[in-house]
Amino acid sequence: MRFTKYHALGNDYIVCNPADFPNWTPAPTVEQIRVVCHRNFGVGSDGILWGPLPSSKGEFGLRIFNPDGSEAEKSGNGLRIFSRYLWDQGLVKNPSFSIEVPGGVVQSVIKDNGKLITVAMGSVSFDSAKIPVNLAGIPREVINEKITVLDREFTYCAATIGNPHCVIPLPEISSELAHKYGPHFEVHPNFPRKTNVQFLKVIDRNNIQIEIWERGAGYTLASGSSSSAAAAVAHRLGLVDRSVTVHMPGGKIGIEIGDNFSIMMTGTVNKVAEGTMHPQLFEVKV
Question: The pTM is what?
Answer without folding.
Answer: 0.95
